[in-house]
Amino acid sequence: DLEQALAATPRKHVCVLVTEWGKPFSVDGFSGFMRDSIKAAGITDLTCRPHGLRKTLGRLLADAGCSAHDIMAALGHKTLAEAERYTREADRKRGGKRAVVALNEHRANKSPQTTPKRLGKIAKSEGKTTS
Predict the structure, then answer these.
(1) 29 and 43 inside one domain
(2) Which of 13, 17, 66, 81 pairs as cysteine with 61 (C-beta 3.0–4.6 A)?
(3) Which residues have a Cβ under 8 Å from the Cβ of 63 and sit 6 or more positions away?
(4) DSSP secondary-structure letter at 52?
(5) 22-80 pLDDT, tens per residue?
(6) Is 122 contained in some domain?
(7) One domain, residues 55 and 40
(8) Residue 72, pLDDT score
(9) At 24, is the secondary structure helix, strand, or coil?
(10) 15 and 63: one domain?
(11) Does residue 101 fall inside a structural domain?
């Protein structure tokens, strides 16, 4: 829906939301614009703030597999470190899932070294010393 709305909206700037003069918002200007828009939408939740929406988008992009560079471009970050905040947790989640899948695949392709009947039993040759 958003993609269709954006495609139908004429733009003269790379930024989607611009001031009434067609220029990018300043940080404070955008916060004011969003604050006014949130109130106009009837949202009374005081925790709904522009930065929270931006952070949510960053996390959604990271969970979708976007790179830190992609997130940096989408959110307008100036440094890669800012965008990497969003990818760290998503990378850990994906890495954990990949690790479990890899272990399961590895285990499925190998026969165990010890049969279940032998688990915990000492082999006859163990513990004996030769003189």
Answers:
(1) yes
(2) 66
(3) 90, 93
(4) H
(5) 888 888 888 888 888 888 988 877 677 777 778 889 999 998 989 999 999 998 888 99
(6) no
(7) no
(8) 92
(9) strand
(10) no
(11) yes
Instruction: Say how far apart CA 30 and CA 6 lie, in whole Å.
Output: 19
Q: Does residue 65 share a domain with residue 30?
A: no
Angle between helices 80-108 and 50-63 (to 10 degrees): 30
Integer Cα distance of 24 and 29 in angstroms: 9
Burial (Cβ within 10 Å: 0-12, 13-18, ≥19) of residue 25: middle
Cβ-based neighbour number of residue 77 at 10 Å: 19
CA 71/CA 87 separation, integer angstroms = 9
The b/e string for 84-114 (b: 16+ C-beta within 10 A; e otherwise) is bebbeebeeeeeeeeeeeeeeeeeeeeeeee
If one counts the domains in the chain, the total is 2
Token pair of 32 as six digits: 């004011």
Structural domain boundaries enclosing 36: 10-48
In a domain, 32, yes or no: yes
What is the reported pLDDT for 107?
84
